[in-house]
Amino acid sequence: QVQLVESGGELVQAGGSLRLSCAASGRGFRSYAMAWFRQAPGKEREFVSVISARDSDTYYSDSAKGRFTISRDNGKNTVHLQMNSMRPEDTGVYYCAATRSWRSVSPTRYDYWGQGTQVTVSS
């Protein structure tokens, strides 16, 4: 079982940058692909990015491509999401999640979730 705790969310102006972190504990972190999702008020949870378990292959939503970068440190059991050129539509609660299914964009394929961290982008 894997426990996930996100941090780094805050209020930022449009055009600014933010770095989210996800700390994992428990067994098997290195065998899970790790992803970030987000959820805006009144909307469904949305896929943002995923990174593979071992070779750090990455995949992004169209909205995140070119602006966000996902990375992981298997030695420290952490995952990060660097967000640049942020927009008001990036506002939401950002969740870290773990899956054994590589490159899945569906939340139903993810086994473990963190509690989320709030990101607000002001215009």
Termini separation: 40 Å
Number of helices: 0
Chain-averaged pLDDT: 95
H/E element string?
EEEEEEEEEEE
Low-confidence stretches: none
SSE-based structural type: mainly beta
Shape: globular
What is the percent of helical residues?
under 10%
- The overall strand count is 11
Topology:
Layout: E1 2-7, E2 11-13, E3 18-26, E4 33-39, E5 46-51, E6 58-60, E7 68-73, E8 78-83, E9 92-99, E10 112-113, E11 117-122
Parallel strand pairs: 2-11
Antiparallel strand pairs: 1-3, 3-8, 4-5, 4-9, 5-6, 7-8, 9-10, 9-11
What can you tell me about this protein's structure?
By secondary structure, the chain is an all-beta fold. It is built from no helices and 11 strands. Strands 2, 4, 5, 6, 9, 10 and 11 form a 7-stranded mixed beta sheet that branches. Strand 5 and strand 6 form a beta hairpin.
Summarize the structure.
The protein is mainly β. The protein is 0% helix and 50% strand.
Keywords, separated by commas or semicolons:
single chain, mainly beta, seven-stranded mixed beta sheet, globular, 123 residues, four-stranded antiparallel beta sheet
